[in-house]
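Lest this sound abstract, we think one record worth quoting, the chain in one-letter code, the fold tokenised, each line plainly labelled:

>
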Amino acid sequence: MAPPSDFPSLDKIEPTQDHKYTIIALHSRGSNGPEFAEELFEDKSSSDLTLAEHFPTCKWIFPSSQERDSMIFQERMTEWFDIYSLTNTSQQEELQVEGLRDSVKYIMNVVEEEVRYLHPSEIVLLGISQGCATAIHALLAGKYRLGGASSV
């Protein structure tokens, strides 16, 4: 199942050893997949290794959200879904539905593609901020029992 064409292309970092796991990492509002990948991999651990070097059997996928009209910021920006208020997320929550539905469907298509190569339990969703909310919705709404979801 191919991802919907109205989402930007996926940014991928292939494993340097045999592919055993996939992490699908979702960025925050106002960011994108390549930017999140760069931020996540620019630092090194106390062992002087990057995250990719610590997990050489892992494929990293960084999808990018669509650009949407943001109700809060009154501008067009990348976000997985729109939201009316950052302090009261239940206020006008109907604004979240369309974007969240489309974004979850997109992430589930990305998962579907990875399931061709790995068992679902070897696939993990990771997200920061809005990406975390989207990842958790995808985990709960998906048809596969994935390895889990995490936030950064």
Q: What stands out?
A: The chain has a mean pLDDT of 91. The chain is about 30% helix and 20% strand. Helices lie at 33-41, 51-54, 94-114, 130-141.
